[in-house]
Design goal:
Elements: H1 9-15, E1 19-21, H2 30-34, E2 40-44, H3 50-58, E3 63-68, H4 71-83, E4 91-95, E5 110-116, H5 134-143, E6 144-154, H6 157-167, E7 172-178, H7 185-188, H8 195-202, E8 208-214
Parallel strand pairs: 1-4, 2-3, 2-5, 3-4, 5-6
Antiparallel strand pairs: 6-8, 7-8
Helix pairs in contact: 1-4
């Protein structure tokens, strides 16, 4: 799907007090940014921010950082945040490519990573670009606390199968998984849906989910 360019999106993001970009690395600074030592949860590929905003409202005791590559998408999330009556002090945003994630977070600075309906990059030669690839798992390994975990949701069954295959060789372990989230009482408990999830599930597409953590050394 071709993204519609929004004139001035980059300038809006650069001027917004809740936003950072790859030009301003923040590794090690997140306690100062939020003004507390609460756990930090991040979503990579946050889209228009519905999922992350809902979590921030539900859990004020957790700090949330949304990462989005495309300025024209991120600016829509900012518009929604700015339109809220009550500000959310526990949410921030970054416009960046996830390959540079280690410049934004120091070792052990992140408690949880959410990956929701990530680009499947279906061609084999692009497998390393998938956010659940072994290459990306190495990056996540650097920034997560020892007990940190990753939660991944998708409606793409091929991507889900690929993701499951990456876990053990990359030195991670599978904590839970399902090929049909909305019919899994345990994993669906407290589930917060994204825009894509609501759309795909309404079309009859089962949603897959896995939760992984690093193997103990």
């Amino acid at each position: 799907m071709r993204l519609r360019n929004i004139p001035g999106a980059r300038e809006t993001i650069a001027a917004h007090n809740l936003c950072f970009t790859e030009e301003s690395p923040q590794a090690g600074n997140w306690q100062d940014i939020f003004g507390n030592d609460h756990p930090v949860h991040i979503e990579i590929g946050m889209g228009k921010g519905r999922f992350l905003t809902a979590l921030a409202e539900l859990h004020p005791e957790i700090n949330y950082v949304g990462i989005e590559k495309y300025s024209s998408v991120l600016v829509r999330a900012l518009e929604k945040i700015d339109a809220q009556t009550e500000p959310l002090p526990n949410i921030r945003f970054i416009r960046m490519d996830a390959t540079d994630i280690c410049a934004m977070f120091a070792p052990g600075e992140v408690d949880r990573i959410y990956l929701n309906f990530s680009d499947p990059w279906p061609k084999d030669r692009h497998a390393k670009r998938r956010l659940t690839s072994a290459e990306f798992l190495k990056r996540y390994d650097q920034i997560l606390v020892p007990s940190g975990r990753i939660e991944f949701k998708t409606d793409n069954r091929d991507l889900f199968a690929f993701s499951l295959d990456q876990i053990e060789p990359a030195g991670w372990k599978l904590l839970a998984s399902t090929w049909d989230l909305h019919h899994d009482d345990a994993l669906n408990a407290g589930n917060v849906m994204t825009e894509y999830e609501e759309r795909f599930s309404s079309q009859g597409n089962p949603i897959c989910k896995m939760i992984i953590a690093r193997c103990e050394s």
